[in-house]
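Wed. Picked up where I left off yesterday with Xyloglucan endotransglucosylase/hydrolase. The coffee machine is broken again, so keeping this brief.
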Amino acid sequence: MVMKLPYLGSSLFLVLTLLSVVVSWSEKRLPILSFDEGYSQLFGDDNLAIHRDGKAVHLSLNERTGSGFVSQDLYLHGYFSASIKLPADYTAGVVVAFYMSNGDIFEKNHDEIDFEFLGNIRGKDWRIQTNVYGNGSTSVGREERYNLWFDPADDFHQYTILWTDSKIIFYVDNTPIREVKRTAAMGGDFPSKPMSLYATIWDGSDWATNGGKYRVNYKYAPYVAKFSDLILHGCAVDPIEFSSKRCDSAQSLEELSTTITPSQRSKMDSFRRKYMTYSYCYDQTRYKVPPPECVVNPQEAERLKKFDPVTFGGGRRHHGKRHHRSRASRSETVSV
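Structure written out below (tokens, as returned):
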């Protein structure tokens, strides 16, 4: 049974989630790397600033440039995580990304696993988008978008990518929000080549907010995304030979749980019912038949159809007011 509680319920869920994160980290003893130990600046000159003796990184966007960093190693599978605090106030057009890619090596058949945070106008919430590409399959968009049960600009929250040879799981504060299983139907579209980890902030005015209707307003710059608790836990590989460079017992995925527990799955199902606003599997304007790897959940399908009957139900678009989630809806807890 899903409980709908007042603000106390939401606060209780947040406390329990944070406690589970602490316990999880303690049990796994995953090392938090300093910037110099695991990363290099990608672009942005002075728009990248290192804090707390290398344990935190600030990425800024201004009229001159955005900024970003990249892992020093390539990884074949692993657990990749960061605590992130997003810019506040007017953030339309701003994109903050925490993702894995090998596009610099495999330009025509690259793999990618994305967390993208899409800014918004004042009074509207940040949205999260996840996406997966394998073997250059960019013609098949596998996007999902969500609202959150908290304001990601108020404080740090943990965002995690778990990537194995059989599945990809996206987590927010140790709650799984999406699971992508490798199936025969996906063929080569499942990411399977070594990738680097990236974090960037940049101007996505052309598409990020209402399809480009609202653009970055540099009157509010600099936009600063803050990163800390950086974890790179996986099998590092040689960038030339793609052989294992560092994958000893201390870094093996065997010590990580790659299975979603019944409790976690219940939270994930609840999250998706309440906060998912888009999934390619239900987009009838793009795909008359869902891509073969999609597993249709009737509850998700029904909710999305009510949210946008044109995209998800084949209905006609009405020109009245469109419903938007209010901040008060965060009073609902994701727990069950």
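Quick read: The chain has a mean pLDDT of 85.
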